């Protein structure tokens, strides 16, 4: 049985456009307008998707995965203690 929205309409499962938007939002390099344009939807649609529990859950899951990966790689790079690794670290966190 299909899940229903607040308005009583059936909610379709996440499709390719949803997952593309999730990946772009989790990456954090684009704003909502750019993400919406890339996915071929209106910005309002993207905001509506963000209100969906399943969309938000997938976005949080991917964001946590990316953060954990960044932490793991930065820890590995910091162990090396070379000048190049230190430069990478400070560039990554945005300090000069």
From TrEMBL:
Lineage top rank: taxon: Bacteria
Spans through the membrane: none
UniProt xrefs under InterPro entries: Homeodomain-like_sf, Homeodomain_phBC6A51-type
Residue span(s) of domain Homeodomain phBC6A51-type: 13-73
SUPFAM superfamilies membership: Homeodomain-like
Name assigned to this protein: Homeodomain phBC6A51-type domain-containing protein
Lineage of the organism: Bacteria, Bacillati, Bacillota, Bacilli, Bacillales
């Amino acid at each position: 049985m299909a899940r229903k929205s607040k308005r009583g309409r059936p909610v379709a499962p996440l499709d390719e456009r949803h997952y593309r938007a999730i990946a772009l939002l989790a990456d954090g390099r684009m704003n909502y307008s750019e993400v919406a344009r890339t996915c071929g939807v209106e910005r309002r649609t993207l905001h509506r998707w963000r209100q969906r529990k399943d969309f938000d859950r997938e976005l949080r899951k991917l964001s946590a995965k990316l953060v954990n990966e960044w932490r793991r790689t930065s820890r590995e790079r910091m162990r090396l203690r070379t000048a190049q690794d230190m430069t990478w670290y400070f560039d990554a966190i945005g300090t000069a």
